[in-house]
Amino acid sequence: MPHGVSPASLAAVVLAVGGAGCIPLDGYDPLECAPSGLPMSLSGLSPAVPADYVELRVGVPGEWEVLDHVGTACATATDPEACAVALDEAGADARLLLGECVSFCPTFVMVVNRGDEVEVIPDAPTLTAYLGAIDTPDDAVALSLAAGFALACDDVAEGGVRAAGDGFELIGTRYTSLCSPVEQERVQLGVSAEGEVTVLANEVIHRNLLVCIGRRPAGLRAGSAPRAEVGEWLAAVTTLEAAAVVAFGELADALEAHGAPDALVARVTEARHDEVEHTRTMARLARAHGARVAAPEVVPSPGGDLEALATANAVEGCVRETLGALIGLWQARHAEDGAIRAAMATIAADEARHATLSWDLAAWFDTQLPVDARARVHAARGAALADLRDGGHADAPAALRRSAGLPSAAEQRRLALGLHALVAA
Questions:
Q1: Run of H or E including 262
Q2: For residue 355, which of 298, 409, 303, 419 has the smallest C-alpha distance?
Q3: DSSP state of 44
Q4: Given CA atoms 124, 71, 113, 82 in this order, what sign does their dihedral have?
Q5: Per-residue pLDDT tens for 143-154?
Q6: Dihedral angle sign, alpha carbons of residues 138, 140, 142, 145
Q7: Which of these, 23, 30, 45, lies nearest to 98 by C-alpha position?
Q8: pLDDT tens digits for range 125-173
Q9: Cβ distance 124 to 147 under 8 Å?
Q10: What's the number of domains the chain is made of?
Q11: What is the pTM assigned to this prediction?
Q12: How far apart are CA 364 and CA 356, in angstroms?
């Protein structure tokens, strides 16, 4: 264990800290939303073979909502009645992705009618074949959405298009991580005339270390990214505190199974009790701000071998929990909301003890592992530290930052640098 990592040394880092994108957007036109709410219109598509009618739906069979349509249904059908029935029944088993699927995935169905034929567009390859040569901006937008990228309306920084050679280039976004930390990147996409969608460049535009900090169980399923409101931030933290209860419970069982010293197991069990209280405290604050708290989704996982346990402790405890303690100490000094400031004073003190526990566990794991396994664990810890030190950081909205006492992007980086220096020492 580094001799300098202790509650007092973490507080010293906080006291010491108390102190533009690379993708050019020139030449891009902002995307306009169609009545469907999507940044594309069916009337702007240029299919390889003209159709009588095209319809875009969302929902479930029998309860479809028609978002957009172009043309006249069954206009050239020899049996209009049968054509109408086929249109109504089409798409029962087909689902088309349009846009990024984070926590809620709308069910889109695109139906094409030519004469008596009714065709469903169920996926990106079929959509590419339907469009043929990509020769309109809406063609390029449609394929980018079908590839799972988010494209915003009226904001060129998150949704833009321009011609490029015989194809198009677009600006969009996507989440690359929802809880390790929450991370969103801007992407520059190329869409060729043949319909191939490629990422030309990408850059992190949002990286929130202020949520998803702390020890996570191995089977934690990522939730949706937190919103900007104080209540939603508190609710997201509550969910993660509840996940930490599970993590410490699993860790205690695994340590006991591997014959860890009783004193270490007892400290892990005590940390679990702390997290129960943290969950209750943050839940009360979240509800006081009108937010709904969701329970964490955790898939039960086996304890794993000693190296797996040591690696998880190195990343989740020595790095994430230690940084969480630093941020908690910062909030205890800077939160303008008195209830949050008081809560964080208690929680941060507990988290600082948990961080020390993580390093004590690391020292015990080192005595149990062979040299090559120890080297791999230390490398994983070093990589996690480097990610915090070198990764992009983003400001939370100003109102949330003031109320909850969250550090700014620059302060986040300095806290991460302070942690890196403390561990290196």
A1: helix 262-288
A2: 419
A3: G
A4: positive
A5: 999 998 999 998
A6: negative
A7: 45
A8: 999 999 999 999 999 999 999 998 999 998 999 999 999 999 999 999 9
A9: yes
A10: 2
A11: 0.57
A12: 13
Q: Which of 180, 208, 236 is the last residue of a domain?
A: 208
Contacts of 53 (CB under 8 A, 6+ apart): 69, 70, 71, 72, 73, 74, 75, 87, 112, 113
Please report where in the chains the tokens 């300095």 appear, as a residue: 414
* Pair (169, 231) in one structural domain: no
Contacts of 112 (CB under 8 A, 6+ apart): 47, 51, 53, 54, 118, 119, 120, 121, 130
Per-residue pLDDT at 401 exceeds 90: no
Amino acid at 102: V
Nearest to 155 by CA among 39, 14, 301, 68: 39
Residue 303: which domain range? 7-19+210-424
Residue 1 lies in a domain: no
For residue 421, what pLDDT band results from cuts at 50, 70 and 90?
Answer: confident
**What sign for the dihedral angle of Cα 180, 183, 188, 189?**
positive
